[in-house]
Structure formats: C-alpha cells, structure tokens
Automatic annotation (TrEMBL):
InterPro entries, per the entry: NanQ/TabA/YiaL, NanQ/TabA/YiaL_sf
Organism of provenance: Candidatus Raymondbacteria bacterium RIFOXYD12_FULL_49_13
Pfam entry (one): DUF386
Record SUPFAM superfamilies: Clavaminate synthase-like (SSF51197)
Designated name of the protein: YhcH/YjgK/YiaL family protein
Entry superkingdom: Bacteria
Entry GO terms, CC: cytosol
Length: 155
C-alpha cells in the first residue's frame, strides 16, 4: 500500500501506463462525468463515482488479483482502511469476473487514512482495503476516481 501526494507520483510509478493514468487524473474535475473510462483496453481503466460515506458497520473489505487499485479523491473526504491480506478471513471467495475477494470486517485495520483531493492511495493484490468510510463522524458526499491498473502492465 502506498499513500502520498499526487505530486510524488513519479517517485513510485514509472512507465507509460502510469504516465497515462496520471495525465487522465490531472484532467478530471468535480464536473467530470461519472462512468467507466477505458484508457488502455484491459491494462488501464478508471471509474469516476460519487457516493456518501458510511460507518464501519457497512464496511466492505476487499482485495483484487488482476488490478492495482489507485483511489484518488476529487472532492470531499473519505477514510480508507488497510490491512494485510494474510491476516484476513475470507467471507466471499475470489470471483474472477469481478476481480474481487471479500473478507470478514471484524479484522481491525492496521492503518486508516483520510483521503482528500491531492492524495492517492495505491492498493496491491496483498492489500485488503475498505473504502467509503466516514472521514469525520457523519456521512459526506465525495467524488473520486479509482484507477484500475493491470498488475501485468504495471511494470
């Protein structure tokens, strides 16, 4: 898992797929259309969404095998939680068509981070993560983009 400023992107990620992903993110705004954007066939796509954050009682702990998830908030704030996959208890086995496996949320996250515009959080296949959590004590509407970068293309 990596958490840092978008300005530090180049310290972690090298190669054309990463450059293309960052260029796409830099072109987004609060008025960007909410949809799935296919940027490089199956190697790179982005999902722009808005939603209200919620409490931990509705948390969904997940991992992905084919894609690295990069979460970037466009507006608002949300908390993300992280825990290593190796300490998780499987709740729903891996579904290849969704590239997702889900875990029991009784595991206490080892790290929580408040996401706001200008930051990114990258989750690799061994990083179980929970998005959509309250940043404070109540729901807040956020807009974000989740980049999906194929592990095989990440270089």
């Amino acid at each position: 898992m990596i958490l840092d400023s978008l300005d530090a992107w180049g310290l972690y990620f090298k190669g054309s797929v990463w450059d293309e992903a960052l260029a796409f993110v830099r072109g987004l705004s609060v008025s960007s259309e909410e949809k799935k954007y296919f940027l490089r066939e199956n190697d790179l796509y982005a999902i722009v969404v808005s939603y209200g954050t919620h409490g931990r009682d509705k948390a969904i702990l997940e991992t992905h095998r084919k894609y690295i998830d990069v979460h970037i908030t466009i507006s608002g704030k949300e908390k993300l939680a992280w825990v290593p996959k190796k300490v998780c208890v499987i709740k729903t086995p891996y579904d290849e068509s969704k590239d997702a496996e889900f875990y029991d949320t009784a595991v206490v996250p080892l790290s929580e981070m408040v996401m706001k515009p200008g930051l990114f959080a990258a989750f690799y296949p061994d990083d179980a993560h929970t998005p959509q959590l309250f940043a404070e004590t109540q729901s807040e509407k956020i807009k974000k983009v989740v980049l999906k970068i194929a592990w095989a293309a990440a270089g």
